[in-house]
């Protein structure tokens, strides 16, 4: 703020200290992750001294069936939850953006509700609910819980894309006697595709990211990768932990970059 | 049924049935009696809320004031509050910097601050612990430069938890602030100076009103998940200092007192809702 006060100088755009803070912020966000990734390539067992570089911990991770199983659960769960959430969010966005909806504000509040609830509350509320209705713990409960909290993440990019799309094309199709379903399949859906994809990717990564809800709901056979990684920490941070973590960083980075490229092509 | 209802029903229904209803059920569970191995007995009881403030003597059933849980609640609020202020102090200059770059650099910078948010929170927390450990690179550097004799206690304390919260939620502060500054027409500031506004007046009546929505959104987005955060205190605090999220989690794992956990969760949910309603009402008043 001090810097802000000294702004009689002509160019307000370059305040002193602002660039340095931004650089420090980026360093603060990235340094730990990069450090962890570097040590995942350690040739030795240490996590504080580098003994040459090797891929031995990655080989160990890929040979570990438990980790493989948990990773498969995570990906399967994220694909199913993201797909279900995207379908429901698309339907909701079509109604909210293109149609007259009574009590729109209330519907909007419900759609965004999962974003407002602290994760730990969702986690234990789901645990209570699923044991009360007799569904218990396991993959089924995980799918339902993940789909639910993924809905707003899928909804936001889809609704944004729909809002920025020219409704005129759809009107023109209607004028040319295209029936609603045909109009949707031939005009709306192709134009909406980038929004659908970034909504799906966002939901996918949010599902992959979740730890606390999954740890409350996962049954014996349905452990997800973050839950398994957490259980590995009981032995402290090991090179295997670093290798699994690095692979997860890589997966997130790929999805985000992909999603960024798609949204850049939007216009 | 009308088409728009048909389209809205699946998403709204899913959220209401699988999120709103469970939260309502949690509130109901908070006024029931605990069963021995988790779960509840359907017998109304206010014990869970009494336990928040009082300790019941196991022999003569008398209540004595017990500040332990209140302390954890207070610590959670303070930690989340400090993290929010730190995020603001780092996030505001960062957002300002990004918003004043040329367009091509802007999207790159934005991507740079958003990517870490999408990295798994557990992984980011582990990475931070790796940095802060006694044998970690920070302590190593300090010692080899002769700035410290032994390792500084950077990990497993409130400092580490605070740092964890800041790194978890910093992008949440930067993005809304960026959105607010982005919309700012810098010629307004020059106009204020041309009209002989003092620096303070310019900040107060030109910059602050434009930042306000971003400040409020960023503040909420850091503070609310901060209070209930689980991983940062658990991993960076070394399990020594609890926050509300851990206390809630424990009631469903080791301690197995579901009504007490439900009551704590109801308290957290109420705090969250009150904050959201206050902000929404204020925003509505400003719009009017």
What's the architecture of the largest domain in chain A in CATH terms?
Orthogonal Bundle
How much of the polypeptide of chain A forms β-strand, as a percent range? Answer: under 5%
Largest sheet of chain A: none
CATH topology of one domain in chain B: MetI-like fold
**Class per helix and strand makeup of chain B:** mainly alpha
Distance between the termini of chain A: 37 Å
Low-confidence stretches of chain B: none
CATH superfamily of one domain in chain B: MetI-like
What is the helix fraction of residues of chain B, given as a range?
Answer: over 70%
Radius of gyration of chain B, in Å, reads 24 Å
The helix fraction of chain A, in percent, is: over 70%
Q: Tell me the fraction of residues in β-strands of chain B, as a range.
A: under 5%
Low-confidence stretches of chain A: 5-10
Task: Spell out the key features of this protein.
heterodimer; A: 267 residues; mainly alpha; MetI-like fold; 2 domains; 12 helices; B: 288 residues; two-stranded antiparallel sheet; 4 strands
């Amino acid at each position: 703020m001090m810097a802000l006060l000294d702004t009689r100088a002509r160019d307000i755009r370059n305040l002193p200290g602002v660039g340095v803070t931004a650089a420090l912020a980026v360093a603060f966000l990235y340094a730990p992750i990069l450090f962890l990734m570097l040590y995942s390539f350690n040739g030795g067992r240490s996590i504080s001294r580098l003994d040459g570089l090797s891929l031995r911990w990655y080989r160990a991770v890929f040979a570990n069936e438990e980790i493989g199983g948990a990773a498969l659960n995570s990906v399967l769960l994220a694909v199913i939850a993201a797909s279900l959430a995207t379908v429901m969010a698309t339907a909701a966005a079509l109604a909210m953006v293109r149609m007259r909806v009574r009590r729109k504000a209330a519907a909007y509040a419900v759609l965004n509700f999962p974003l407002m609830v602290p994760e730990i509350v969702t986690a234990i509320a789901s645990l209570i609910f699923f044991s009360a209705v007799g569904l218990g713990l396991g993959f089924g409960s995980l799918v339902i819980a993940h789909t639910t909290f993924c809905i707003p993440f899928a909804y936001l990019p889809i609704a944004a894309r729909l809002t920025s799309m020219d409704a005129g094309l759809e009107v023109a199709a209607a004028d040319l006697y295209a029936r609603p379903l045909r109009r949707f399949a031939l005009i709306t859906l192709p134009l909406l595709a980038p929004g659908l994809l970034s909504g799906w990717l966002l939901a996918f990564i949010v599902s992959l990211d979740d730890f606390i809800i999954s740890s409350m709901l996962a049954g014996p056979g349905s452990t997800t990768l973050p839950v398994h990684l957490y259980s590995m920490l009981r032995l402290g941070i090991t090179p295997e932990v670093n290798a699994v973590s690095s692979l997860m960083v890589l997966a997130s980075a790929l999805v985000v970059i992909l999603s960024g490229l798609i949204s850049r092509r939007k216009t | 049924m009308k088409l728009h209802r048909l389209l809205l029903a699946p998403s709204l229904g899913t959220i209401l049935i699988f999120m709103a209803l469970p939260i309502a059920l949690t509130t109901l569970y908070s006024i029931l009696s605990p069963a021995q191995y988790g779960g509840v007995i359907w017998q109304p009881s206010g014990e869970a809320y009494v336990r928040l403030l009082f300790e019941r003597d196991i022999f003569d059933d008398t209540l004595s004031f017990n500040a332990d849980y209140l302390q954890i609640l207070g610590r959670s609020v303070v930690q989340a509050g400090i993290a929010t202020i730190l995020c603001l102090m780092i996030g505001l200059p960062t957002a300002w910097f990004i918003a004043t770059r040329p367009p091509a650099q802007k999207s790159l910078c934005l991507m740079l601050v958003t990517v870490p948010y999408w990295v798994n929170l557990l992984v980011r927390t582990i990475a931070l612990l790796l940095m802060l450990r006694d044998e970690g690179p920070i302590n190593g550097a300090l010692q080899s430069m002769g700035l410290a004799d032994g390792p500084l206690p950077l990990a497993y304390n409130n400092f580490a938890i605070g740092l964890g919260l800041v790194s978890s939620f910093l992008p949440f502060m930067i993005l809304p602030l960026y959105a607010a500054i982005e919309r700012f027409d810098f010629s307004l500031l020059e106009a204020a100076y041309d009209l002989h506004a003092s620096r303070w007046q310019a900040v107060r009546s030109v910059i602050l009103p434009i930042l306000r929505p971003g400040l409020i959104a960023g503040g909420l987005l850091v503070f609310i998940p901060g209070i209930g955060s689980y991983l940062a205190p658990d991993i960076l605090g070394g399990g020594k200092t609890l926050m509300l999220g851990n206390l809630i989690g424990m009631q469903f794992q080791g301690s197995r007192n579901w009504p007490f956990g439900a009551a704590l969760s109801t308290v957290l949910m109420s705090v969250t809702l009150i904050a959201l309603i206050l902000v929404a009402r204020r925003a509505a008043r400003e719009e009017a």
